[in-house]
Amino acid sequence: MNMKPGLRDCLWMAAGATVLLVIVLVALYFQKSQNPAAQLAFKAKRVELVEQMRVGLASAAEAEKSAVMATTDVDSKAFADQARSATATVEQGRQELGKLLEAGGTGNETDILAQFSQAFGEFQKIDNDLLSLAVKNTNLKAYSLAFGPAAEAIGEMDAALSRLVAAHGAASADDMKVVQLADGARIAALRLLALLPSHIAEESDAREDQMEAVMAKEDEAVRGDLQALAALSGLSGNADLATATARYARFAELRTQIIKLSRENTNVRSLTISLNQKRKVTMVCQEALAALEQTIRAEPIAGLSDRTVVRPR
């Protein structure tokens, strides 16, 4: 006697078939995920990304240092662009590696990547500030003005006052007065010129304030002596005195520009950041990547005794 299965029997049969299908799918998934060749390729891809990030990080740091040390705006900008490009490559690798670790990385690998990401965020912030300073080259521009046009102006002033002194000698009290005032203006001007390089190289705002106070006194001395010379009846309309006065006025204009550039201190500040904050955060990033690579390489692969990772071609 044949008996047709009832509704309850059909439900049980359907449920059993569903459970069996789930078991088969899970088995197939784990069989695939445990495939040694697939695991080896997955490991190799992660290692390759980490190595690329380490190289990119080193390239970014090297280009940044070149941007800081470059002597022209064109070179500084070119190296800064290289540094930003290398940093962008590292960021791209970081995002891609993060996706891979989400798909099949270990918790330890994810934690180390998170540590790197935090340090790399600081790296990017410091780099942005540093490179923005480096390309301005205000200290180099200040040096160029100080040793170029400013030095020429003082040299021409000094030569004019030397001719003035030579023309008067020391035969009379008036001549002695001319020599005294002219030499006083020359010495004060040369002292002022000599202070500029130290100001340009100085990092401390307080020290720059002190130097500028000394410069102000020297400037007052030069102007006072030149005015006193102009007040002497025998020097009315003197060509050498007019030249000296005009050249010092030109120097004063240049000195204002030099002080302004020096105060920005972009080369000094960028070099300080590069040698301190940037160097330290770069080391932290590299150490995190080294630890991550070591952790990935040490990850066991079932069925393989040789864990050596070969990059996929």
Could you explain the architecture of this structure?
By secondary structure, the protein is mostly helical. It folds into two domains: 44-135 and 267-297, de novo design (two linked rop proteins) (Up-down Bundle); 138-264, Up-down Bundle (de novo design (two linked rop proteins)). The chain is built from nine helices and no strands. The protein has helices spanning 7-33, 36-69, 73-104, 107-134, 138-168, 173-201, 205-231, 239-264, 266-297. α3 (73-104) packs antiparallel against α4 and α7 (205-231) packs antiparallel against α8 (239-264). The protein is rod-shaped, with a radius of gyration of 37 Å.
List descriptors.
313 residues, 2 domains, de novo design (two linked rop proteins), mainly alpha
In short:
This protein has 313 residues and is an all-alpha fold. The chain folds into two domains: 44-135 and 267-297, de novo design (two linked rop proteins) (Up-down Bundle), CATH 1.20.1440; 138-264, de novo design (two linked rop proteins) (Up-down Bundle), CATH 1.20.1440. Helices cover 85% and strands 0% of the residues.
What is the fold named in CATH at topology level of the largest domain?
de novo design (two linked rop proteins)
Order of helices and strands: HHHHHHHHH
Q: Over all CA atoms, what is the radius of gyration? A: 37 Å
What is the name of the CATH architecture of the largest domain?
Up-down Bundle
CATH C-level of the largest domain: Mainly Alpha
Distance between the termini: 67 Å
Relative strand content: under 5%
- Tally of helical segments: 9
**Weakly predicted, low-confidence segments:** 19-32, 305-310
As for the number of domains, it is 2
Question: What oligomerization state is this entry in?
Answer: single chain
Average residue pLDDT:
87
